[in-house]
Amino acid sequence: MSLLELKNVCMTYGKVKALQDINLVVEKGEWLALMGPSGSGKTTLMNIIGCMDKATSGSIILDERDLSNVSKNELTSFRRDKIGLVFQQFHLIPYLTAVENVMIAQYYHSMPDEAEALAALDRVGLKDRATHLPSQLSGGEQQRVCIARALINYPMLILADEPTGNLDEANEEIVMKIFHELHAEGHTILTVTHDMEVGKQAEKCIIIDHGRIAESKYNR
Amino acid sequence: MFWQMLKGAMLRQKQRMLMVALTLALGVSLATAMLNVMLDVGDKVNQELKAYGANITVTPKNSSVLKDIYGLEGDTAHKEYLQEADLGKIKTIFWTNNIVAFAPSLESKIDIEGQKEAVPLVGTWFDYALQLPTGETIQTGEKYLKSWWSVDGQWVRDDDLQAVMLGKRLADTLGLKVGDKIEYRAPGAPQKETLTIKGIFSSGGQEEDGMFAPLAFVQKLNQLQGKIDKIEVSAITTPENDLAKKAATDPKSLSMKEYEVWYCTAYVGSIAFQIEEAIQNSIAKPVRQVAESEGRILEKTQMLMLLITALSLLSSALGISNLVSANIMERSKELGLLKALGATNLAVSVLILTEIFITGFFGGVFGYFIGLGFAQIIGHTVFDSSIAINLMVIPLDIVLMTLVILMGSLPAMRMLLSLRPAAVLHGR
Ligand SMILES: Nc1ncnc2c1ncn2[C@@H]1O[C@H](COP(=O)(O)OP(=O)(O)OP(=O)(O)O)[C@@H](O)[C@H]1O
Ligand SMILES: [Mg+2]
């Protein structure tokens, strides 16, 4: 059984057809890159897979559960338990330190555990910055805190919407290195990107255009 | 973790939180002031209103029957009297503490030298030390009952049997002033005697056409030792309601239970009834207009205060709702993130409400003490006395404050519930 399976997923915002007839299968341990021009529907698709939005029609089966007919509260708990989210704009809580920002995810999931949160920061090379506030961290460091936060509850799927979109090349490299490591460890990862270079590093590229899957190819 | 988030969030928006606290402090301070004044003011307003005079008159039984049936003043031969000795019994009734003041009176006329017509003369107590059956001594008399009289000169001393007070109109007609002497002849007395005018009073009533003298003097003049023909009583009363009206039409129509409630409530009717029980051969009648208006003015004052309280709380709820909504909007990204990380609507709402309640708590405590200050200012400017601090106000304040906060947070909570993480996190 695949980890994620989308069948005929459509999403419309009023008259805008953001997604049309998306069929997609993601196997455990795969690293997929979603690519496509601006406005093609990448974020929309990520939101649906990330249990932040419900599709207008079609079925989404994540870990053997059909998401199309569950309640809002169930979606929230699904997201909490199965998904790790990384955003383009980092989204850290400004008045909490790096380690506290990681612990927040633990708090809403189960129990804050500082040792584990520190280990997650160590994992992304930020152990010595644990007590810094987001304003005291560089963009790349902030994004690494986000990744640590996304990893903390052992998600079965990591979703990253343009994780390197706001980073310079040096930081992009560091972040991509972390994704490679995660992939090597067996995590299932879905990244969205504009950048062909970034896209190529994934196992498989899915090109979306005007809300449809235009192409799907393996990179090696 | 929860507390860390709270602390962080609250410190970060100190100014807004300060505004919330101040808004709430304003509402709570007004509520505290009004409630304290309201709970304490019943007595104060009554003391003010007491100036309107007696609200119960006690007369001898038969004379009032005669008066009522024939409209007669009753000729002197058959005239009935009350006993001066019974007066202390008024302070033995159940509602004794509600009796503020009372004074007996004995009406008569006096022939003054140089006047064709006899002048009305009332014997009464002015500032009399009355020994009660309980052994206690109280001061009572016209001075307490007619506190609005303005007196030029002095009140007469009750043991000064050669002194009188003249009504202003009478004094003007006779061309007399304080310190002048009047000569009179007692019925059947061989020679004239002299009275000194100790005071001239203006009351605004018809008593200004007559004169007042100590009760003992008038009793002696008329050979009516120990007799009086009227008692005026000023009592603090509870406003009339349906039960009181029912009792007034026919006390016998009350059930046992109703009777008990009526008897044990300070209606003017039940106080009058108890006075009647205490003083033999008497009829005690409420002077209704005055008694009712006292209660009504008190009620209206309290209504007004309630209204002010309600309005001030409403306005602070509105203020809070603005502040909190703005706060939620500003933090939509942060709150959306919490939701995206798996926080339920409940968890986020609890977080926000806790923030507001903690802020509100400080605002409330601050407002409470400011309110106590307001209450004293109101007490001193309006009622000329300080206001007792009523601890009952604290739980009332807490309840009201909670309502205000919940009401004020309602719009923000709705925003919070409809906040979609997908929408805020991608910057739309
Ligand atoms: N909440 C919404 N309401 C209305 N239209 C929306 C909404 N969200 C997205 N859309 C529309 O759906 C389409 C797809 O948007 P989406 O954000 O998925 O594009 P994208 O591929 O992520 O673009 P970008 O690369 O610029 O991030 C766009 O035309 C967008 O205008
Ligand atoms: Mg996008």
Which value, in Å, is the CA radius of gyration of chain A? 17 Å
Question: Percent helix among the residues of chain B?
Answer: 40-55%
Number of helices of chain A: 7
Portion of residues in helices of chain A?
25-40%
Structural class of chain A: alpha/beta
Number of helices, where a helix is a run of at least 4 consecutive DSSP H or I residues of chain B: 14
Q: How many beta-strand runs of chain A?
A: 10
Name the shape of chain B in a single word.
elongated
- Elements of chain B, N to C (H/E): HHEHEEEEEHEEHEEEHEEHHHEHHHHH
Query: Ions, cofactors, ligands: which are bound?
Result: adenosine-5'-triphosphate, magnesium ion
Mean pLDDT of chain A: 91
Report on the architecture of this protein:
The complex is a heterodimer of chains A (220) and B (428). Chain A is an alpha/beta fold and 220 residues long. Chain A has a single domain (2-87, 151-218), classed as 3-Layer(aba) Sandwich (Rossmann fold), CATH 3.40.50. Helices cover 34% and strands 28% of the residues of chain A. Chain A has a six-stranded mixed sheet with strand order 6-7-8-3-9-10, with helices on both faces. Chain A has a four-stranded antiparallel sheet with strand order 2-1-4-5, with helices on one face. Chain A is globular and about 45 Å long. In chain B, the strands form three sheets. In chain B, strands 1, 3, 4, 7, 8, 9, 10, 11, 13 and 14 form a ten-stranded mixed sheet that branches. Chain B has a two-stranded antiparallel sheet with strand order 2-12. Chain B folds into two domains: 2-47 and 295-425, no CATH class; 55-243, no CATH class. Chain B contains 14 helices and 14 strands. Chain B is of the alpha+beta class and 428 residues long. The two termini of chain B are 29 Å apart. The chains are: A alpha/beta (220), B alpha+beta (428). The A-B interface holds A 43, 47, 50, 52-53, 73, 76-77, 79-81, 85, 87-89, 91, 93-96, 100, 103-109, 112, 149, 161 and B 1-2, 4-5, 8-9, 11-12, 333-334, 337-344, 347, 420-422, 425-427. The site of adenosine-5'-triphosphate has 11 residues of chain A, from strand 2 and helix 1.
